[in-house]
Amino acid sequence: MKERSLPFWRSILFVPVLNEKFVRGAPGRGADCIQLDLEDAIPPDQKQDARHALPGVSDALAGRGCEVIVRINRPLRMAIPDLEAAVRESVCAVTLPKVPSPEHVHGLVEVIEEVEREQGLESGHTKLIAMIETAEGLLRINEIAAAHPRVIGIIVGPEDLAVSMGMKPTRTSLMTPNVQAVAAAKAAGCMPLGFVGSIAGFTDLESYRSVIREARELGFMGAFAIHPNQVAILNEEFAPSPAEVEQARALVAAFEEAMAEGRGAAQFEGKMIDLPVVEQARAILEADRKVRVKASA
Question: What is the pTM (predicted TM-score) of this model?
Answer without folding.
Answer: 0.92
